[in-house]
């Protein structure tokens, strides 16, 4: 959460996360703050 506060107007993304990581992010509701993508290209497209 501290990192999120430091990067107020920026986005945080994780690329290539496996299913357990994605489930943990969803369980903790961090998936609202940290987006996950399968590839770097997908992440770059979403941020454009």
UniProtKB/TrEMBL annotation:
Q: Which Pfam families match?
A: STAS (PF01740)
Q: What are the STAS domain coordinates in residue numbering?
A: 7-43
Protein name per its UniProtKB record: STAS domain-containing protein
């Amino acid at each position: 959460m501290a990192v999120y506060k430091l990067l107020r107007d920026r986005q945080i993304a994780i690329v290539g996360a496996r299913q357990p990581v994605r489930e943990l992010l969803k369980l903790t509701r961090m998936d609202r703050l940290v987006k996950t993508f399968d590839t770097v290209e997908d992440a770059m497209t979403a941020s454009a």
